[in-house]
Design goal:
Elements lengths: L2 H11 L41 E5 H6 L5 H5 L36 E5 L2 E2 L25 E7 L4 H4 L6 E7 L5 E11 L5 E12 L3 E12 L2 E2 L16 E2 L6 E3 L9 H9 L10 H6 L8 E3 L9 E2 L10 E3 L5 E3 L1 E16 L2 E16 L11 E3 L12 E4 L11 E18 L3 E21 L1 H8 L27 H4 L8 E7 L5 E7 L4 H7 E26 L2 E20 L1 H4 L12 E17 L4 E13 L3 E13 L4 E12 L3 H5 L1 E8 L11 E8 L7 E13 L4 E18 L2 H7 L6 E3 L5 E29 L3 E19 L3 E4 L16 E11 L2 E10 L2 E3 L5 E3 L2 E11 L2 H4 L2 E8 L26 E9 L1
Parallel strand pairs: 2-5, 31-35
Antiparallel strand pairs: 1-4, 2-3, 4-5, 6-7, 6-44, 7-8, 8-16, 9-15, 10-14, 11-12, 11-19, 13-14, 16-17, 17-20, 18-19, 20-21, 21-24, 22-23, 24-25, 25-26, 26-27, 27-28, 28-29, 29-32, 30-31, 32-33, 33-35, 34-35, 35-36, 36-37, 36-38, 38-39, 39-42, 40-41, 42-43, 43-44
Amino acid sequence: MSFKSTLLATTAVAVSLSFAPSAGVLAQDSEELEEVVVIGSYIKRQAQIDTASPISVLGGEDINAIGAKTIADITQTLTINTGAQNNPDAFTQNFSTGTSNMNLRGLGVSSTLVLLNGKRQVVSGAPTDAGLLFVDTSSLIPMIAIEQVEILKDGAAALYGTDAVAGVVNFKTRNNFEGFEMSADMQSSTEVDQDDYRIQAIAGAGNDKTSVMAAFSYFDRSAMTTAEKRLPGSLDPVLGDFSNAGMPGTFLTPTLPVGLPAALQGAWTAVLDSAGAVPGLADYFEGVPGATLPAISDLYCSAGENSVVPSTFPFGLCRLDFGTFFNLVPEESRYQGYASFSHEVSDAAEIYGEFGYARTRASRGNTPSFPITTPLGISADQPHNYFGADVLMIGRPVGQGNPSNSSHASDTLRAQIGVRGDVLDGWNYDFSYTRAINDYELQAKDTLVDRFNNALVGLGGAGCDTLNGLPGQGACQFFNPFGSSLTAGAPGFPTHMDWDTTDAAGDPVTVSLPVFNNQGLIDHFFVPLVANVKSRMTAVDFVMAGDLFDMGDNTVGAAFGAQYRREHFGADYNDHANNDNFLFLVGNPDYSQTRNVKAIFGEVAIPFGDYMEVQGAIRYTDYGGVVGDSLDPKIALLSRLSDDIVLRASYSTSFRAPSAYQQNGTQTSLQQLSDKLAGQSSGGQFRAVRTVGNPNLKPEQSNTITAGMTWRVTEQIEVNADYWFFDFSNVIIQENAQAIINADPSDTRIDRTATGALLQVNSGYANAASLKTSGLDVGINTTLHSDADSSLVMGVEGTYIINYDLIDPQAGAVSGVGNRNFTNFGTSTPQLRINGHLGYNFGRHTVNMFARYIDGYDNDQSAGTTVGSFTSLDAQYSLEMPAEMVAGMVFTLGVINALDTDPPMIATNGGYDSKIHDPRGRMIYARVSQRF
């Protein structure tokens, strides 16, 4: 038996479920292999072993064995993936709840090209907080329709164009499936009430000329709130889930209060001009060093269910513990459908088509309302102001009650029609038209500035005539921003108060005002910000491949082709957002861009005898305008030193064009910033950061080198190793708002109030950074036992990152390996990840066990702290029912994170690193599948 045949047979048995960097993984006997197109080349080959680029493949059975319910579950197990945003949190991923993505080599979620059956998919309408656009892998296809996932682990712009910087992930579907299969899954956390449910089905039929297939799935995920599971890091008093802005709130009194209870009035007077250690109010105005404006907590701070009362009450901040309002896992539901057909018209032409649809609805919990971003002035004349003096409020309109959920709706549609066939002698062609769209809608409630300000002076409510109405009279209402609104109606606390004012004629009148806040009044000024985003892609592809000429006993293969692509991306915000009328979220202008992309490419594979092959490709892509064009080559070498050792190496250039969003979009996000202007609070505070697109951006560029080997040590042992190096330059980054403040707190890009308080930072996008990263992928697969009745296989694979060096224009030169990279444009980068697998099959029984290790790394958000290492164990048992009982039925039970290990603690919002770890703890699952 040849090396190729034995290798394929071995790897078919030793199914490595952790994407081991294997050169040959097709589970077929090589004597019967037909030539097919594999990822990384348009030239037909017999197997992945014939490619000079590092490739990994995961089959449908492998996906089932790891217990994956979504594509995100697959991604998170990859050792070559780091920093994907698959566990959306409210602090670094405001828009993208309900989506998932990939981040090969940590080069960014937009630097991995995602294909479906070798063709592009439209990007999601949900950009990341850094303004990156990505393909939502959750919206691709039902999991039951996946035949295999192919990963090309080096740059591939020479064949596929933009975005293939870190590599390519291709999802192949079961288009030739015949019969009917269905399955039902349930997964549940053992700690909290969080469940996943999935039902799916696939049906197919065909004959010698025609084939049709259709698949459907429904996925439902219940939320896991931070109220149910509080991770320790979220309880850190500085960086955890605590806000200085509560409701009840905190008040700054520029003048001496005169309406406080006697005991409190005396205490307040005592600190007016300090005789002791506490600098008082007079000291503040007299410029005494260290003197600050005294802050007093709302008298009813303790009335707030989630309030944190200061130990020095009433002096100090009445804070809000907002951790119980958020989701560690958002609520999510998804319908997906996929269908394909092919029909052979003649020997030279086969018509084919695909249709896919995904409908996702997700909801994420937020606080009852967002905070007021700058101290709010409340007049002494405000009837609910018990201070009897003008005050400045640090707080929020609503701080107690139910979370105010944001809703995220995504609808993705993809249709493709094409014709392919064989022409001439040994040549084939493929011509296709693809149309794909994504409509994404975000709704998040926030306070309207004008209506809220009107309500503070008694002109609030839907029925109030703000021009002619009288404060607190008729349909015009007062909003009570003080804690007394929460105690109203409690024993000893009135529900109404008498307020002496004048009527329309100027005559004295006493008005009975409610002390509590009317929900209708709140609903009038607390409304959704609505963003409707449309992403569109049209692509026309033509590829022709075949044999050029014979070269000895071998044949020189070639391929060439062209692509035309039209992309559109735009957002339509509601009027309040267009007018920047939201208190916290501010708003956004509408934007839209359409661009046309044209490309041509060529590829050749030249064999030199039976032991060496040179593969080359080149692609020219033209975006026109400022983006311009790019010429990207790739050259690769395959050397078969012997029947047992294969060497491979490649060099290529790749590029990523700036997205339409980075060029023309505008994004307003909230970031925790520290002011450096003298006289202003230097504590962390959430402020608006508006990032405006830059139409002059140039493409990012990458040079990639890979070198690897496959060594069949014995009949049972295979070793794969690959070295990789990426030099990523001209990287587009979002200017860091904190760095702008640090460099010059008086920068014209910083908006401030009349008193100098930080209001908003305006930033942009720039080609300003570089990233060099290198590492090793190593995998070993072993067949410990194999006969007609049973088999025992073992595999281990790991990725070791040698360096991850960034040059950030604001953070400077950074060695990012083994770092969270919170303070630069990089991503969390554990240095070492290892997956191990043990699989045993005997008769109708199958057992799979996995061990996964993620290295610890530094946490640069809080200097001197680290994120601990993490080890998890998974296990699965499957039973195929006897044919005489129920033919084709399989029961599966499994556990993920069997030891119930919590993610490593970080003193930050949420308490863990959502880009690396999973907060759910131990999860058990069951699945039943039936094939007819």
